[in-house]
Amino acid sequence: MEEEEDLVVVISRSIVIPRNAKKSTSSKKKIHLLPWDLSRLRFGYLQRGLLFSKPYPKIDTVLSKLQTSLSLALDRFYPLAGRLVKVQNDDDTVSFYINPDGSGVEFVHASATNIEVSDVLRLSTSLSSFFPATGVKNCNGVSRSLLMVQVTEMKDGIFIGFGYNSTVADGDSIWKFLNAWSEICSKGLVPEPCQRRLQLKGWFFEEIEYPIRIPDPEAKPARVTTASSGLQELMFHVTKENALKLEAKANDEKVSSLQAVLGHLWCSMVKHSGMSREEETHCRLPIDMRRRVDPPLEEDCFGNVSQTGIAKVTVGELMDNGLGWAAGKINDMERSQTHENAEGNAEKWVRDVKIPVSVGSKDLVVTSSHRFDVYGNDFGWGKPVAARAGPPYVSGRMVVFQGVEEGSLDFQACLLPQVVEKLSEDVDFKEFVSIVL
Fold first, then answer.
1. Band of pLDDT at residue 3, cut at 50, 70 and 90
2. Quick one: which of 2, 147, 168, 410 has the fewest CB in 10 Å?
3. CA dihedral 310, 315, 321, 327 (to 10 degrees)
4. Directed axis angle between helix 417-424 and helix 257-271, to 10°?
5. 76 Cβ partners below 8 Å, 6+ apart?
6. Is the pLDDT of residue 419 over 90?
7. Which residues of 212-246 are buried (b: 16+ CB within 10 A; e: fewer)?
8. How many angstroms separate the CA atoms of 217 and 33, rounded?
């Protein structure tokens, strides 16, 4: 880890504020947090990044254009420039809300001139230092910006890494923000959709009073894993053709191609995990609730509007029933994510507050989505050649991105080395999945 940090040198740090922050912040209302926001307070910021290869303008020009356009984009996506506020209550509990006060976004310029684009593509170097929010927890948003950006100049490319607080945005919202930011940077003007008023999620759990009172998540020290701790990162690639083959193989269950791919990954990972047949294993998947709540929200509604769906089975059940059954269980779980389900889970959580530090190490933890527009983010010097994820690292984590080829899928996996070794020798696994080591 120390060697990698020596390769990445921070050149400067600054704060970028919304262009019209002084004019507009007084009219912005506080944003109250839902149970699925509060339950993430001890998790680390989610971190993603885009890799660009040469040619591109001089780095000073790149930084200037990025900062100017970021300031313009934050005018509309103003919650990202706010801060969390923690209120101490008189019953030894605390409450949180987002104050959209325009405090700004941390912006880091770094240099890693000995690292090449090919190193990032192969994950042959740790990417921890390419991201600005490594080690920062969501509850730290009271003093740290809710969005952080780092631009790292490499030997033959640029990496734009960002970390964001899960209480302010989910993957859908953050990628739509990035799509808007890149368009503003590329065209030098604010597109018409970004001139419309931002719609926030509001409060839609009628039986829950806000602000919600919870035990202080910082009362007990929570360790956020920043290094891989013996885990191995690698890329899995699934072509459109192989995704469709897996869907056909599992078609008795009427599942989607993504569910079939996830079923294949889940079965293969558990097969080589060394777990006993009696142990329970989970597939965790983020569920966009915008159109599932009642009344439904607009698809471009901004905020964290996703909850984690969990498919639960035993190892024996998974091994005995195989791909189609596993994909069917994922499909059943997704179909069960209704407004009533979300409201029931939220009310249960408020009665018995639990704020975990991390998820189980024996789970398949799927984050992000293949639907997010990754390769449309052209800041003015061409489309990215790849997307990558940063810490925190969790065993079994699969960050899914759309592939470069239409209909293909990329997964950035974080697994135990012995599982990686066995997967690399598993002919059935590799029939549908390419491993990039």
1. very low
2. 2
3. 20
4. 110
5. 180, 190, 194, 195, 196, 198
6. yes
7. bebeebeeeebebbbeeeebbbbbbbbbeebbebb
8. 14
Calculate ∠ Cα 395-391-66, nearest 5°.
150
CB 361 within 8 A of CB 394: yes
Specify the 3-state DSSP secondary structure of 299: coil
Angle between helices 171-187 and 59-76 (to 10 degrees): 120
pLDDT tens for residues 296-345? Answer: 999 999 999 999 999 999 999 999 999 999 999 999 999 999 999 999 99
Phi/psi of residue 310, nearest 5 degrees? -130, 115
Taking residues 259-267, report their average pLDDT: 97
Q: Kindly write down the DSSP assignment for every residue of 18-82, as one continuous string.
A: -TTHHHHGGGPPPEEPPHHHHTTTTSBPEEEEEEEESP---HHHHHHHHHHHHHHHHHHSGGGG-
Give the predicted TM-score (pTM) of the model: 0.94
* Helical pair 315-335 and 240-249, crossing angle rounded to 10 deg: 100
Catalytic residue from among 119, 332, 378, 426: 378
Cβ burial, residue 3 (10 Å; 0-12/13-18/19+) = exposed
